[in-house]
Design brief:
Layout: H1 15-44, H2 52-62, H3 70-76, H4 83-94, E1 98-102, E2 109-113, H5 115-136, H6 142-167, H7 174-189
Antiparallel strand pairs: 1-2
Helix pairs in contact: 2-4
């Protein structure tokens, strides 16, 4: 892309910053399209009353047809806290799509998809195949491109997580305050 296009863009002072920002905007647009798709297919498969988080949680729990703890589900979804997830899990139990299973003598619970939930997810899978994966198979070298992109996004997820942790140690306004103070000082000296 032509750097002149980004000349006055606060997030794109250098070619690398501009390309990073282009990638971020693409991810944001993809995320919105993906959420709309998930909700639409969910609606078509009898799961239209679920939120996006509830739908993806249900898919994660169904992975490998093994019960999962809330912690494992949160880790798979890269969620920091599990409070919102626990609320979604309670709703899925209320809708009779999940069961909560107490583990032996421990206080640890796992969640499993009910037969009704499995049936709806099978319908979801059928619709998804018809409207999405049957279409994407026509893209040249799609499987290779998808795995490469998935690996890149996974790697960048780690980079963004680390950058978020590092940025938490920065004093957010120290440099800005210094600029403001210097500007005030310059103005007062100029009087």
């Amino acid at each position: 892309m032509d750097q002149d296009y980004y000349k006055d863009w606060h997030l794109g002072h250098t070619p690398h910053e501009a390309m990073t920002t282009e990638f971020e905007w693409a991810v944001l647009r993809f995320e919105q399209a993906f959420q709309r798709f998930i909700l639409q297919v969910g609606s078509m498969s009898g799961l239209g009353h679920l939120t996006y988080q509830e739908l993806i949680s249900l898919h994660v729990i169904r992975m490998q047809d093994r019960p999962k703890t809330a912690t494992v589900i949160a880790r798979q979804l890269n969620m920091d806290g599990i409070t919102n997830l626990q609320y979604s899990l309670r709703k899925l139990i209320k809708y009779k799509l999940l069961t909560k299973i107490k583990g032996g003598n421990s206080k640890i619970y796992t969640y499993a998809v009910t037969p009704a939930g499995v049936a709806m997810l099978e319908e979801y899978t059928r619709i998804r195949r018809n409207v999405l994966t049957d279409q994407t198979m026509n893209i040249e070298q799609i499987d290779k491109r998808l795995i490469e992109t998935a690996k890149l996004i996974s790697m960048l997820t780690g980079v963004y997580d680390e950058a978020g942790r590092v940025s938490a140690t920065y004093s957010a306004y120290s440099k800005l305050n210094l600029v403001v103070e210097n500007t005030k000082k310059s103005k007062s000296e100029g009087k």
